[in-house]
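Protein Record: Sequence and Backbone Structure Tokens
======================================================

Structure line: whole-number tokens from a learned vocabulary of local backbone shapes, matched to residues.

Purpose: to set a sequence beside its fold so the mapping can be learned.

___
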Amino acid sequence: MIELNADKLRVKIFDTREEMGEYAACEAESYLRSLLETKEEINCVFAAAPSQDDILASLVKKDICWERINAYHMDEYVGLKKEDPESFGNYLNEHIFSLVPFKSVNYIAADSSWTAEQLCDEYCKKLSGIEIDAVFMGIGENGHIAFNDPQVADFKDDKIAKIVDLDDVCRMQQVHDGCFPTIDDVPKQAISLTIPTMMSARRLFNVVPTSFKAKAVKDTINGELSEMCPATICRYHPDATLYLDSASAELIYR
């Protein structure tokens, strides 16, 4: 493992994404167990993406009192149905929500007679007033965090969650990830937690493998703080770690 710091952000680089995921899960286990010694229940937000496969596969095997943890969903496409396999809620259900006994699981509803605005408002109510103890997240190819693409990212956003338009780089990433066959199949809008909501968390576990993310990782670590690369804000969180494999880290020193 190679370790370095970018401002306050701890960066840990591993040879393989399997090692990356296991190490991140071990650190998460230690953090959550320690926190449960002082809090009756805790709140965790989870991203849904293939980049999270490794940490989630390891995390569900850890000795954690899941019955005292409330799980929250980071973002969701607008327009998908609940049964659609591309739904982020379905991803999280398959990879963690159905595999461990959470105290509660809080989805952004994908199938509803409500409008997107009503769904977003309802989800904001669920998160209003709670302390987020941990966010498990990634970084997009355009530097987005959640679905805060550069054109909609706002470091001073006053909303908890919002409806966003997805840019073409973000939508093409979903094709690279194998989630959709073509860019035309990818929805053009999503409901996303805002950047201040995620940055309010006590701890960030930011897991980013593969060469598709190498430029975004380089910009996150070496670039200026800017909403043009939303992930740069992670460098100023008081307790955040960026976990990389050798492929995603390959441009850091170039």
User: Anything to note?
Assistant: The CA atoms of residues 49 and 162 lie 19 Å apart. Residues 2-245 form a domain with the Rossmann fold fold (CATH 3.40.50.1360). The chain is about 30% helix and 20% strand. The radius of gyration is 17 Å.
